[in-house]
Amino acid sequence: MTSGAPARVVLSEHDISRALTRIAHEIVERNKGAEEVLLLGIPTRGVPLATRIGARIVEAEAGGLTSEDLVGTIDPTMYRDDLRRQPTRGLEPTRIPPAGLTDKVVVLVDDVLYSGRTVRAALDALSDVGRPRAVQLAVLVDRGHRELPIRADYIGKNLPTARHERVSVHLSELDDADEVVLS
Amino acid sequence: MTDYLITGAQLPEGSITDLLLADGRIAATGSDAADMAGARAGAQVHRIDAHGLVALPGLVDLHTHLREPGREDAETVASGTRAAAVGGFTCVHAMANTTPVADTAGVVEQVWRLGEDAGWAQVRPVGAVTVGLAGEQLAELGAMASSAARVRVFSDDGLCVHDPVLMRRALEYVKAFDGVVAQHAQEPRLTAGALMHEGIVSAELGLTGWPAVAEEAIIARDVLLAEHVGSRVHICHLSTAGSVDIVRWAKARGIQVTAEVTPHHLMLTDEAIRGYDPQFKVNPPLRTAEDVQAVRDGLEDGTIDIVATDHAPHPSEDKDCEFAAAAMGMTGLETALSVVTEAMVADDSRDFGWQDLARTMSATPARIGRVTGQGRPLAAGEPAHVTLVDPSARWTVDPAGLRTASENTPFAARELPARVMATFYRGVATVLDGQPQDGSTR
Amino acid sequence: MRHLLSAADLSREEAITVLDTAATMAATQSREIKKLPALRGLTVVNLFFEDSTRTRISFEAAAKRLSADVINFAAKGSSVSKGESLKDTAQTLQAMGADAVVIRHSASGAPHRLATSGWIDAPVVNAGDGMHQHPTQALLDAFTMRRHLMPEGGAGAGLDGKRVVIVGDVLHSRVARSNVDLLHTLGAEVTLVAPPTLLPIGASTWPCRISYDLDAAIAEQAPDAIMMLRVQRERMSSAGGGFFPSAAEYSRRYGLDAARFEALPGHALIMHPGPMNRGLEISARAADSDRSTIVEQVANGVAVRMAVLYLVLAGNEGTPS
Q: The domain spanning residue B255 has which CATH number?
């Protein structure tokens, strides 16, 4: 906590689950099925979120779709414009399913949309890997304060915040709990 | 001429006394001093309260490099002897590795004359053993001995007289005028390209090693040669435990060998080189902690006769570079007394007091160098070469604050005990209140 | 990581971070677009006081793949050969805006001096100094070993329990020193094999075994990897130090000939930092076998150097998390 205000849970485990289910439906609806869709999670917490959304889509869509074909990861670290201002980051793997991403609809998945700089870096990283037909963005929380002309296509929750506040997403794969905390 | 009445000083053996310095001599001691000072008609008497200070005979250094002629950018006879005075010295020997080399009567007389003109301390030139330090042909040792410089110590220091026949001839030849050969013991083939002590640290740092055996083998050979021809031999800057053992053995056999250790070999080890700082590059190199203990033990038990600084100034560009490219050597005149105090006198487990310091840094080096009038007891009638030391003072070494013209001290930022408060050379105050007395007061 | 001066400075955690980062870098090098924008706008200076085309090209490729600008400063034919000091050269580079300096120097400790003397602010990467260290070589060797010897390519792992035999001129070898330090840090067991004349006094304190007998070392260790060091032929002459009597005798006692190659375990890697003296320290049979990683080591060198440049330059203004 940096603000001194008490921490407040803004999304519960149940809220998160419902939001992801809704996002999964919206992705299928908007893209008229999932055959052309590729979900790429942005490390760290975008990766389990993409996996969860992917599982919901595979469950909903009958047919030969598998998670391995539908979900991958992309690490935008090397493409950030603030590399030297941050402590050195370890690199995370970039995993693209074997079919590649050219002519696919790539849905980037991240936990929190804030300045937009991570997404900008991820777009650059994508263009070095291939040429998607379209790129969409799914986030669990949009907390505002954009610094670039970027918006999300799928949003779990719009969360108005002050700049000094801190949004922490906890996911059971990494943190032993599912919740979003504002502090 | 000013007389000096020094009151309440502690002599090396421990007694408290007054000293009156007049006309270049110690005119009186004890209660006579004040009486005589009062009776000196026409003399101006400068009183110095020396309570709490130790009075030592002026220190004598058997081994310095004053760099003149040739490398006046590093040091001159004047700047070096001024630094010597601040360090408590009244006599320094100037090594022969100048440009031109001090291998003729002309050069040694020039150096001697520069010392007399500067007036900070007595300068005793060391003559080269071989022409141009080349190790091939004896220099005119007799001519240097009978010159105005009255050279008695001969050395190719910086280089070893490695040819055994040449070394034998030099040892024999200098007997004719009671000279001594001071050997820089370094087997050249075993030390080709050597940069530091060969051991654990050199292996790790990848720096070519200078093995202890390269020093010990030459010392062993030379003490046996000295025995064979009945000459005395002096070992410069002895640095290893093995060397101490060999000299101890030689002395037990009655061989006329004397040996010196430098302050830095009493204090520092090869561990200091881990940062590749060329300030710690010196020849012979800094050795191990075991060697440091051995040379301290040797100095305490008399195996090692004296401390000599091997004061070796270098301009900053010769140290501000890669370790391999840097010059070898350290300054030492202004830190020697403090380092020996720290390493020996202040160590309560050692039997080494001010009397031993006076012996090893004044009386014995004067005797080895056959310097009459230096290193004498502080008694009435003796020449007035006196150093006053504050044993309780502590000071921090600031390379830029030292008086030597170069800044290559390995003791930078180190806090050391004991400070020279005053130095009197031929009855003249060269240093008062720790400050060199430039100009008219001298 | 502020500088990379010695493999001995790396903790196990840091070393594994470098290797993992290198693995990520290596993955990008199979793509059509190999260039990454991470160091765009930054200038890396290759300051080479000693000829080494291989190492310089490897660092140059690494820097360029990360979009850095590269200035090659070779001492030969430059002001350095006219007597300019390391200090003045360093200050010149500083004035030109070097963001990182990769230095190769024949004097042990020169990178250390460059990094610690206040002559320059930029991070310093040691590309080989005298007989002291060559940390990126050790990192690429460890990377190569990990990739082949550890399960699933070794991500996140060290080299625990792996046995490595390093053979040859240890005395003059910065590669050997760096490898002993790094492999020990990563948990491998190292055995140095050399004639006693080519082992430094003091090596007995290093974290490794020492043997004078290559056949015995192969039999006792059953090594997972064997690394042959380059032996310079001139070392046998008196002027070169007279370290061994003849090339033929050296080769008989310490060369990786066909018989010794056969005696190695079937999975053992054959490594050499290059350039090789075929027929002296290594036979063509061993060098060209399918267990030889000698060519792969070169490719891995680029990935490892990308990782090192990235780690010293990215986040340089912050503190490691």
A: 3.20.20.140
